[in-house]
């Protein structure tokens, strides 16, 4: 009876040890997956920030070009008005 009990206890310890190793492996794999997900999230954030900077730069350049064109047009209209005023005198 004692031998059977000792053998059962030994097998139980081995089974628990195997379960413990599997649990450790699963936990390590979950940690690895979490690290990969964090890296991907960081990459996505950096990419989005870069895209936003590029889009902002393009918008600023477009606004500057449109402002310059409007200023040139206003200048031409002012010149035309001055020419018309000079002709009327």
Secondary structure layout:
Blueprint lengths: L1 H87 L1
Question: How would you explain this protein's 3D organization?
Answer:
It is rod-shaped, with a radius of gyration of 38 Å. The protein is 98% helix and 0% strand. The longest helix has 87 residues, at 2-88. It is an all-alpha fold and 89 residues long. It has one helix at 2-88. The mean pLDDT is 81. It has one helix and no strands.
Order of helices and strands: H
Number of helices: 1
Total separate domains: 1
First-residue to last-residue Cα separation: 130 Å
Main pleated-sheet profile = none
Low-confidence stretches: none
In short:
This protein is an all-alpha fold and 89 residues long. Helix content is 98%, strand content 0%.
Keywords:
single chain; mainly alpha; 1 helix; 0% strand
